[in-house]
Predict the 3D structure of the following.
Amino acid sequence: MRILLLNMYYPPDTSATAKMAAAVVEALAARHEVTVLCGRPSYDPSERHPWRLWKTENGKSGRVVRVGSTTYARLAMKTRVINYLTYTALAIPLSLFLECDVVLAMTDPPFEGIVGAIVATLKRKPYVYNIRDLYPDMAIAGEIMPQGWLSRVWEKLDRWALRRATRIVVLGEDMRARIVAKGVPAERMKIVRDGAEIANREFLPGEVDREVVRTIRGDDRFVLLHAGNLGFYGAWQALVRGVQSLASEGVGLVFVGGGAQSERIQAMANGAKNVRFLPFFPASKIPSVLAAPDAHVITVRRGLEGVVVPSKMYGILAAGKPILAVAPAETDAASLGARYGFAVSADPDKPEEITETIRALAKSPENLANMGRHAEAAAPDYDRVNELQKFVQILEEAVHA
C-alpha cells in the first residue's frame, strides 16, 4: 500500500506533530510504502535546509519530499502564517504528482485537514484525517482568531473535510465526543492515543538523577509538578491560586518548561515561594523529572475539553505516578483517572476546590501510593507500540472501505 502523509513539520523539526509523524511513518513503513510531504524545517529544528522548490530525501522509513516553504521563526504568528501558506501553495500541486493509495493528513498547519481533503478529492483517493488538535475551535478558544466571517468559513470547510474523511483518528474519548457534536457519525472515528514506551517505564534507582530530583523538590514537603508546554489551554490562574494558599503546609508547585503563557503565569504567582519555575531538562533526564514529584498536574480550562488532549498523561502513568487533573470531568485525564483510580480531579474554575483536593492528597500518603499503583497498572493499556499498530490497521481498512 502506498501512503501519502501530509504534515508541514517533520524531523529535524522538533514539534510534537513532527515526532508523532515520524513514529507513524516508522510503524507504517514496516509493511507499506510511505511518502511524507512536508515543508522546510522551521520548528526549532536541529538543522536548517537551503531553499529549493522541492527536495526529495530517501530515508530508511520511506521517502520525504520537502517543498520550499518559508522558515520564519514560529514565535511570531504573522510570519508563522506565511510559513503555513507557502507550504500549502506548494504542497497541493506537488501532491498531484505523488502516487498513493490513501491520503493521511495531520494538523500542521492548523488547516491541514482541509488541505488533505482537497488533495484526496483531486486524486480520488480514500482520506484519513488524524486530528492532533481540533481547529478552528482551538484558535477561537485561544483568542488567536476572533469569531467572525473567517472563523465561520474555516468551520464550514473543516466540517466538509470531516465529512470527506473515510476515517477520522482522534486522541481520546473527549475529542471524539466533541466531533460527534459537529454531526460526524461516531462509527467513522477511531481513537489512537499517543501512549508511552511502556517497556521503559520501570526506572532503576541508579537511572534516576538525584540532583534533578533535589532541584525539583526543593525544600517542600509535598511537590506537584507540571512539566511541559505552558500554553493557553491550562487553567493557570485557578491552579496557582489554589496552591498559593498551601505554602504554610509545605506544598509546592513546580513548572518545568516554557511557552506562550510563561510570563503571564509567573506574574500570577507574584513571587510566591511555593510556586517555582524551571527550564526544560535534557531528554535523557525525563525519567528523573517524572520520578521527582509526589503527583503530576494536568490542566485543561473549561471549554477546551476535547479540543486539546495532553499526551503527557501516558508518560506519567508509565512512571507510576498519581495525577491531579485540574480539568472538566469530561476530559480524558479526569474521566479515565476516575475510572482506573490513578487521578483525582478538581474544577478548573474553583481555586478553593483545587486547594482542598491538593490538601487531601498531601495528607494521605496511603491514597497517593495506591493511585501510583493504579497508574502503573493502567500504563500497559496505552503502550505506544500497540497504539501505532492500531494506526496501521486503520489505514489498511480505509483503502478497502
Observations:
- The first strand starts at residue 2 and ends at 6.
- The chain has 15 helices and 14 strands.
- Residues 201-205 have pLDDT under 50 and may be disordered.
- The CA atoms of residues 126 and 399 lie 6 Å apart.
